[in-house]
Specification:
single chain, BirA Bifunctional Protein, domain 2, six-stranded antiparallel sheet, 4 helices
């Protein structure tokens, strides 16, 4: 967001992508911290661009060999609420395996369904799933905190699962 703020006078749209190690406090670690490799993308323009970031997610997941959901396998997105994002303009990412995904410095854990074993039982296990990993249009308070005036859509994802 600082980079977007520093470059807000550049021609629109601004599209940023970053792949970086992030250091997180971890009392369980010997050194009190751990590294995670994360991918982040931000789209800043006169329109929010949720579909642009969603398309980016689709492309990344395709490159990681995670296909869109079909009959309980693959990944999908679902509407959710997250105070970082504008109400009604946020979605959770749900997919196969166990992986962690984050949003702008927050770490969220999702449990994903096993394609063959769980697809028939998804409804009965749905309460144990955490659908709080999100992508979406940033809340106006977040945008103005960085001195920005236009809508901004973002996603941040821990990619350790795929390495």
């Amino acid at each position: 967001m600082k980079t977007i703020s520093s470059n807000r006078d550049m021609p629109l749209p601004l599209k940023l992508f970053e792949l970086q190690d992030v250091i997180l406090k971890d009392p369980a670690s010997d050194v009190g911290a751990r590294n995670e490799r994360r991918l982040a993308a931000v789209y800043y323009n006169k329109t929010a661009g949720f579909e642009i970031v969603h398309g980016f997610l689709d492309r990344v997941m395709r490159l990681l060999d995670v296909d869109p959901a079909k009959d309980g396998s693959g990944y999908f997105i679902r509407a959710c609420d997250n105070p970082t994002f504008f109400p009604g303009r946020c979605a959770s990412i749900i997919g196969p395996g166990n992986m962690t995904l984050g949003v702008l410095g927050r770490l969220f854990l999702i449990y994903f369904s096993l394609p063959d074993l769980l697809c028939d039982f998804r409804k009965s296990f749905q309460d144990s799933f955490h659908f709080c990993t999100s992508l979406g249009v940033l809340h106006p308070e977040v945008i103005t905190a960085f001195g920005l005036t236009l809508p901004c859509c973002a996603i941040e994802m821990n990619i350790e699962y795929f390495l």
